[in-house]
Design goal:
Strand order of the largest sheet: 2-3-7-4-6-5
Membrane topology: Multi-pass membrane protein
Strand content: 15-25%
Protein name: Lipoprotein-releasing system permease protein
Number of strands: 9
Distance between the termini: 22 Å
GO biological process, one term: lipoprotein transport
Largest sheet: 6 strands, mixed, barrel
Domain ABC3 transporter permease C-terminal: 279-412
Transmembrane segments: 32-55, 276-301, 313-334, 346-366, 386-405
Order of helices and strands: HHEHEEHHEHEEEHEHEHHHHHHH
Number of domains: 2
Shape: elongated
Number of helices: 15
Radius of gyration: 33 Å
Structural class: alpha+beta
């Protein structure tokens, strides 16, 4: 007997095209099923990696971009905050708070050439706003600074999707209507000039108008006050605890909101979808892996004469089992390896592929008025690739145990009687 015969024979069976042994039609069928099992595993592993990378991308964009633009924690006071500097001084001592900025927020209507769109006017103090948001990634700081300049025709920055709907461009003007908040007061109408447009790739592009803090305050019902304070945190996950603490500390006249109220459902929805989709696709991989059972059972039937001869030559039960476990492991290794390579490549190229397809078709798959972002993100993570690949390989290994046990229990005398 040749030492280490089991690995050699197992690798030969796994890589063989099975010609010249047994029934030709049977060999072709076994070879076809083996390759089909391997192809199914490659496809399952690749699709799972791509989908998880896509879900990771949505989750990362939500935390980094969307939650970088919308307030993480906001503090409001009924009737507006009169002395926001004093309140900011009180809040900045909290260890969770990294930066604070005032804002004025109101809803209105933008009108131009017969087109009217609902908008949100957001007044900011540029220097402080750059510390609490990532708006500086989309608008040049010098343009933000120009928002604070007081003039008869205030300049504003308009969301790109809103500007497109109103046919607005830089330097053009439009009318802003702010409805009356109290009975007996008329609506305020102001002509605003477009300083620039901002494209964040999020739903904010549909309705956002950025203005200077003083300019926005003049449009509100309380010109000498700000709507609230925006807090940036060192850790986003601390927002709910800080909201509860501030609500108790500041008293009934204040109202505190955090991102889990405004975007929490979306964030948890993405995480739940990631888990459910991952589970479903892992089951698909499991089905592909357990196709190895049918493949190896057919190989055992085809090779039972050879198995019987090996047993008469002194091959042990463990040795026979090792032959077929190695064959199953080889299918799993190739399937998981090629699937991981294919899936990783597709995950890295996915944003460019989708953008190219959108350019060819002239159609945008994700619209920011329906979805939170208008592009397809992808975040390939090494731990996902390793977990998926190892899981697929382990399933193939487990699936090979029953056929291997069946091969090891073949009776040589009964098989060779008919050879």
């Amino acid at each position: 007997m040749i030492r280490h015969y089991a690995p050699l024979i197992g690798l030969r069976y796994g890589g063989s095209r099975r010609k010249g042994a047994g029934s030709l039609s049977g060999s072709i069928l076994v070879s076809f099923i083996s390759r089909l099992s391997m192809a199914a595993m490659i496809l399952g592993v690749a699709v799972l990696i791509v989908v998880l990378s896509l879900m990771n991308g949505f989750e990362a964009e939500l935390r980094q971009r969307i939650l970088g633009l919308v307030p993480q924690v906001s503090v409001y006071q009924r009737g507006g905050i009169e002395d926001w500097q004093e309140l900011a001084g009180q809040l900045k001592d909290k260890p969770e708070v990294s930066a604070i900025a005032p804002f004025v927020e109101m809803q209105g209507l933008a009108n131009r050439k017969g087109k009217t769109m609902p908008v949100v006017v957001y007044g900011i103090e540029p220097e402080r706003e750059l510390k609490v948001s990532v708006i500086g990634d989309f608008v040049k700081p010098e343009l933000l600074a120009e928002l604070s300049q007081v003039s008869t025709s205030p300049q504003v920055i308009v969301g790109s999707a809103l500007a497109k709907k109103l046919s607005l461009d830089k330097g053009q003007s439009f009318r802003l209507v702010i409805p009356a908040e109290r009975r007996g007061r008329g609506a305020k109408i102001k002509v605003l000039k477009v300083l620039d447009t901002v494209h964040t790739g999020t739903e904010l592009d549909q309705h956002l108008i950025l203005a200077g803090l003083q300019q926005a305050a003049q449009l509100s019902s309380v010109p000498d006050r700000v709507t609230g304070l925006r807090l940036s945190l060192s850790d986003l996950d601390l927002a709910p605890q800080l909201r509860l603490f501030l609500s108790q500390e500041l008293g009934y006249s204040y109202y505190v909101s955090d991102w889990t109220h405004t975007k929490g459902n979306l964030y948890h929805g993405v995480k739940m979808s990631k888990r459910l989709v991952g589970l479903i696709l892992m089951l698909i991989i499991a089905i592909a892996a357990f196709n190895v059972v049918s493949t190896l059972v057919m190989v055992v039937i085809e090779k039972q004469g050879s198995i019987a001869i090996l047993r008469t030559m002194g091959a042990s039960t463990a040795g026979i089992m090792t032959i077929f476990v190695i064959q199953g492991a080889l299918i799993g290794l190739v399937g998981a390896g090629l699937g991981a390579a294919l899936g990783s490549g597709l995950a890295v190229l996915l944003p460019e592929m989708v953008a190219g397809l959108e350019a060819v078709l002239g159609f945008q798959f994700l619209q920011s008025d329906v979805y939170p972002i208008s592009y397809v993100p992808s975040d390939l993570r090494l731990e996902d690739v390793l977990v998926i690949s190892l899981s697929a390989f382990s399933m193939s290994l487990l699936a090979s145990l029953y056929p291997a046990w069946r091969a090891a229990n073949i009776g040589p005398a009964k098989v060779l009687r008919y050879e």
